[in-house]
Structures are given as C-alpha cells and as structure tokens.
Predict the 3D structure of the following.
Amino acid sequence: MRTLIAYASKHGTTKKAVEKLAEELTGDIVILNLEDKSAFKTRIEDFDRIIIGGSIYIGKIQKSVRRFCDANLEKLLKAEKLGLFICCGDDERDMEQMVNSFPDKLIERAEVKGYFGYEYDLKKVGFIQRTMLKKAAGVEESESNIKYGNISRFADEFNI
Ligand SMILES: Cc1cc2nc3c(=O)[nH]c(=O)nc-3n(C[C@H](O)[C@H](O)[C@H](O)COP(=O)(O)O)c2cc1C
C-alpha cells in the first residue's frame, strides 16, 4: 500500500503536521512538497492512496495546492482513498475554508477530511502582516496550536 502526502507550507506548520501524520499512517509513505520545482514530475498513478493539504492565507490555500488538484483531478478521483486537510488560524471557519480550498469534486470524493490547527510565528512575518494579524485575528504573540488529536483521528480513519 503506497500513500502520497502532497502538501504546501509557508512557515512550517503544515510541514510539522505532515511529519506527524506520516508517523501514524500504515504502509509506504511518500511526502511531496508541492512548492518544490520537481513536484509536477510525481506520478500520481503510482500511489494507491492520496492525502493533500495546505494552509490558509487571507482566505486562500497555496496556489501550488490548487494547481496540483486541478492538474491531476481525474487521477485523484481514481485513488483508492483520498484525504484532505488544512491548517488555518480560524478554527470556527475550518470546514468552510476547507470547502473553499479544494475543487468540489475532491471535497465530495474525500473519505477523510481534517483540520490540523495552526501556528503564528511573529518572527517570520513582516510588519504589515503582523499588524494585519493583530487587527484581524487579535494575534499579539507567537502561538503554536497544532491539533495532534485531530491528526491521530485522521490517521486512524485513513488507515482503515
Ligand atoms: C499573513 C497571514 C494571513 C493568514 N490568513 C489566514 C486566514 O485568512 N484564515 C485563517 O484561518 N488563517 C489564516 N492565517 C493563519 C495560517 O493559516 C496559520 O498561521 C498556519 O499555521 C500557517 O501554516 P504554514 O506555516 O504551514 O503555512 C494567516 C496567517 C498569516 C501569517
């Protein structure tokens, strides 16, 4: 059983979540960073199961995630099992942002969907973004809130 986890991460939260997820999944796991230039060379059809995830910035998931989904839509729909997840700061709008992030067909098709939490590392963002985060989301200091329980639940459901 071969599983591909394709993801994008700007400041590292999604990467950490993916590494934890990979530890908890059974079978052979290949992790693909969609921001890598060679990512498009990966043969989707070589994998039985596929998981795709990214993080939300100003309401949107990374372009590389969207592009990967659009370019491989038919192959992704044929996967034996499909999982989708996001990392985002607004845990009251996690499912809404998830639905807005992936093509409708993948949302309908995915057997497992997950919300893996968020981190704010104010050392990694510039002044404008810091001000925006403070105003829009009340973020005053760096914070780490990766939802390890959600990752374990996702892995348990995906492993079935
Ligand atoms: C500039 C900026 C904008 C963000 N915009 C949103 C947003 O619109 N909605 C949301 O839920 N989270 C938002 N977030 C929170 C990120 O999704 C969160 O920090 C996440 O952990 C980033 O994951 P990454 O490091 O893997 O990219 C924003 C974060 C930053 C720094």
Residues 9-14, 55-59, 87-90, 97, 118-120, 125, 129, 133 surround flavin mononucleotide (CB under 6 Å). The chain has a mean pLDDT of 96. The chain has one domain: 2-159. Residues 13-24 form the longest helix (12 residues).
